[in-house]
């Protein structure tokens, strides 16, 4: 497995034009996959509605749960996770090494947050990041999920759990590499992924400081049938 990832479908000794094409694929295809926002698609198809007009205005699993219930949230989570896995695997297996898997993961997150198919208004990328981490570094993924669960269990703030996990992810990934050592470009993209999630939670951070952030299980919107 490590040898296959090391070589990639497009090897390091491939013609420069082919190598550049591989880089473009690792950017464009993950972005388009990320733009397939399942929260928006499910709310449109199943409910004739747009989840972004309810609750937090976010097109993620948490707002789907608050607005439409557990089934809609589970389908959203599954769809967003699968697109992230596919996008990250493209970078992992197409190009030599694992650096471009991080590039693919970041651009899938960008697509999810700013989907070209849905007027560039999507979700906050937490599920996408977690699913990407599952491919990139399963141990770090598990640790981040544990941190998230513990924080949410004690504070009931989903946003706080997401922010802290995103902040710690680059450090843990640097200290616990899987395929190859943490080269500078990989570390940079890890930091960008973490900062991107924190940036998307900027309004939540303000509400946390003001004490107005919604807690998990409280202040639910009325579920739409």
Give structural notes.
The protein is an all-alpha fold and 225 residues long. 69% of the residues lie in helices and 0% in strands. It is built from eleven helices and no strands. Helix 2 runs parallel beside helix 6, helix 5 crosses helix 7 and helix 8 packs antiparallel against helix 9. The longest helix has 25 residues. The N and C termini lie far apart (46 Å).
Nearest-angstrom radius of gyration?
Answer: 18 Å
Instruction: Tell me the span between the first and last alpha carbons.
Output: 46 Å
On the 0-100 scale, what is the average pLDDT?
90
- Unreliable sequence segments: none
Please outline the major beta sheet.
none
Described by the principal axes of the CA atoms, the overall outline is: globular
Structural class assignment: mainly alpha
Number of helical segments with 4 or more residues:
11
Helicity range of the residues?
55-70%
Order of secondary-structure elements: HHHHHHHHHHH
Q: How many E-type strands?
A: 0
What share of the residues does DSSP label as strand, in percent?
Answer: under 5%
Report a brief summary of the structure.
With 225 residues, the protein is an all-alpha fold.
What is the fold's blueprint, element by element?
Blueprint: H1 2-7, H2 16-34, H3 38-47, H4 61-68, H5 70-94, H6 99-113, H7 126-136, H8 138-155, H9 158-175, H10 184-200, H11 202-210
Helix pairs in contact: 2-5, 2-6, 3-5, 4-5, 5-6, 5-7, 6-7, 6-10, 7-8, 8-9, 9-10
């Amino acid at each position: 497995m490590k040898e296959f990832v090391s070589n990639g479908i497009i090897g390091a000794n491939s013609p420069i034009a082919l190598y550049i094409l591989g880089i473009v694929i690792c950017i464009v295809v993950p972005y388009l996959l990320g733009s397939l926002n399942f929260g928006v698609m499910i709310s449109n198809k199943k409910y004739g509605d747009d989840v972004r007009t309810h609750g937090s205005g976010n097109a993620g699993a948490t707002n789907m749960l608050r607005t439409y219930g557990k089934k809609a949230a589970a389908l959203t989570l599954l769809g967003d996770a699968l697109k992230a896995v596919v996008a990250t695997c493209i970078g992992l297996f197409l190009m030599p090494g694992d650096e471009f898997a991080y590039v693919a993961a970041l651009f899938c997150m960008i697509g999810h947050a700013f989907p070209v198919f849905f007027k560039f208004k999507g979700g906050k990328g937490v599920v996408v990041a977690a699913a990407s981490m599952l491919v990139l570094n399963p141990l770090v993924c598990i640790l981040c999920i544990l941190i998230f669960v513990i924080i949410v269990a004690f504070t009931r703030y989903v946003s706080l759990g997401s922010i802290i996990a995103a902040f710690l992810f680059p450090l843990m990934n640097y200290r616990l590499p899987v395929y190859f050592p943490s080269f500078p470009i990989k570390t940079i993209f890890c930091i960008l992924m973490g900062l991107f999630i924190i940036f998307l939670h900027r309004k939540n951070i303000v509400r946390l400081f003001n004490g107005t952030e919604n807690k998990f299980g409280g202040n639910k919107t009325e579920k739409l049938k």
